[in-house]
Structures are given as structure tokens and as C-alpha cells.
Amino acid sequence: PLNFTLPLEGFVFYIPVKRPGHDIGYILSISVLGIVFNIFVLMVFILHKKPCTVAEIYLSNLAAADLFLVSFLPFWAVSAWNKFDWILGLAMCKIVKVSILMNVYCSIYFLVLVSIDRYLAVVHPLSHGAMRRPKCAKISCGVVWILGLILSVPRLINTKLKHEDVKNKTACHEADPTISKTTELMILVLGFFIPISIISFCTVNILKALRNRSIQRVKTRKTDHKADTLVLVVLLAFLICWVPFHLREVPTWLHQAGILTVCTSKEIQHFCGQIFTYLAFFNSVLNPILYVIVGRNFRDKLKELFKQWDQKRSATISRTTSTITTSFFTRWKQKWSGARF
């Protein structure tokens, strides 16, 4: 059967003609849920009266990166629904593609910062205290946002519009194949292998330290234990969702290099690429759910926030009732005084 391929250059949707609605519906579902859930998480972190911890600063920035990522997915759904005829112009073509790539970089490097923070807290609790201050965390987050933007510049420069006269369609694509391949290699190395190596190192040492503490029955603060559990679960979810996506092109590259003699068919590669892409984007929806299910501190913040709102609402109602009552008795008194005379 005929198939449409939506070339995101690193984000490939393989959409059979017979069922494009299912795929577009899935993209939009991820986008809507991701926007709602991540805004909810950011509201809890921002509106809560207590300042965020270092880990929470990183997780809130991760939620912001996830929010930006899923916010641009509907543009690709519109393009797919329009049979991949890009009608939004060159500016939006560049903005959408760069924003998706930038926030993929930012997401994984925020997790790197979270891993390093928990590594220092668990493995080296008595040293590197300055690195675990909120001010340092905010500066680190700023550096990550700038780094994500810089790493996305090659795609920004290479993204062009191409009009196909035969099909009478305009494609949003990367013009230079060499730059495109370089970008994909950068994503694999800088956006996967290096950060995953750092995360793996930190996670293994965190688990070793926690096991040793358990054996030695060393008492730790409950808040630290809760934070460690949440971080480890979020890291595990990230690995499950993103590892298949980043490794999906490795067999093709090995085949082209002559290292791998047998290569899977294009149809199987496209199908796997589609599934792995959906799984990767689903991570932006999964993270807020994990905060609620696993994050005890997050749930406590949420309860306290609802309590704050309830107290404000009660105070507002009380003031309104008091004002109405005072106004009523004042008018009644004036009326009664007038009736006496």
C-alpha cells in the first residue's frame, strides 16, 4: 500500500494512507494531555508558597521543556492531515522543527542535572554543597536552555521549504543531506550517548550508596529518600521511552558502513520508527503522572496548595459575608432611626 512519510529528520512518522486519522489522533492526544499535565505540574511548583528544592527546580524546567515539546506537535498533525503539504510558511517551519529538537536536548540534560544533584546528595553528602544551592541550579538550567538552542542551530540553518510541482505540495524539510546526517549524529552522540553515560554512572553509584546504607542501617531523611525514589523512576521511564528512538537508525548506519550485512526492510524500519517516536513523545505525558503517583513531596505540595486556595476562598467568603452583614445592619439602623422621627 501507498504510505506517507512525515520527515522530521530525527522524528519520523510513518502513516499508512488507510489510517492516517488514528496516527493524527494519537499525536493530538499526546499534545493535549502533555500540555494539560505539564501546566498542572508547573502551577504546583510556581504557586506553592515554599521555595523549590534543587531537584524541584530541575524537574520544573523538565516540565517546561516537555510543555514546549508537545505544544508544537499539533503543527505536524495539521501537516499530516493536509497530506504533508506545509501551508504555515518558512518561519513556522523553522520554529517548529527547531523547538522540537531544542526541547529534546533540554529534556535529557535537565535529567542529567537531576542525576548529578542526587549523586552529590547521596554519594557525597558532605561535599560539593555549593553546587547544590538553588542559585547554582537556576544558573545550570539557564545554561541548558542556551545549550539546547545552540545545538539546534544547524537544523535552523538547514531547514527550507521545497515546492514539488508534480504533487503541487510544499515540503518542510532539511535541504542539505550532509548537514541533516550531521544533525542526526549530533543528536545520537550529544543528545543520547554522552548524557546517558553520565546518567548511568550517577544512577549506578546512587543505587550502590543506597544499598550500602540499607545494609549498614544508616538513617536518612525521609525527604531525601522520597526524592531519590522519584528521580530513579523518572530516569527509568526516560530510558524506556527514549532508548529505542535513539537506537532505531543504528542498524541502517551499520549496514551502510558494511559492518552489518543483513538489514531489515524499509517498511519494518518505518513502522518501528513510528512506534518508537510515539513512545518517545509519550514520555512528556508520563512524567507528570509519575510526579503524582511516585512523588510524595509533590503530592504534599499539591495538598498544601489546595489548602492555601481553600483558606483564601474561606477568607474571601468571610470578608464578603461580613461586608454584606455590616451594610445590611447599617441600612436597617438608618431606616429604623428615620422611622422613629
From TrEMBL:
Membrane-spanning parts: 24-46, 58-78, 98-116, 137-157, 185-207, 227-245, 275-294
Q: Name one GO biological process term.
A: cell chemotaxis
The record, for Gene3D superfamilies, names: Rhodopsin 7-helix transmembrane proteins
Show the SUPFAM superfamilies listed in the entry. Answer: Family A G protein-coupled receptor-like
Topology in the lipid bilayer = Multi-pass membrane protein
Gene Ontology molecular-function annotations: bradykinin receptor activity; C-C chemokine binding; C-C chemokine receptor activity
Domain named G-protein coupled receptors family 1 profile: which ranges? 37-291
Coiled-coil annotation: which residues?
Answer: none
Primary localisation category: membrane
Keywords, alphabetical: Cell membrane, Disulfide bond, G-protein coupled receptor, Glycoprotein, Membrane, Receptor, Transducer, Transmembrane, Transmembrane helix
Q: Could you give one GO CC term from the UniProt record? A: external side of plasma membrane
Locations listed in the record: Cell membrane
The record's listing under InterPro entries reads: Brdyknn_rcpt, CCR1-9-like, GPCR_Rhodpsn, GPCR_Rhodpsn_7TM
Q: Specify the domain of life of the species encoding this protein.
A: Eukaryota
The record's family statement is:
Belongs to the G-protein coupled receptor 1 family.
Designated name of the protein:
Bradykinin receptor B2
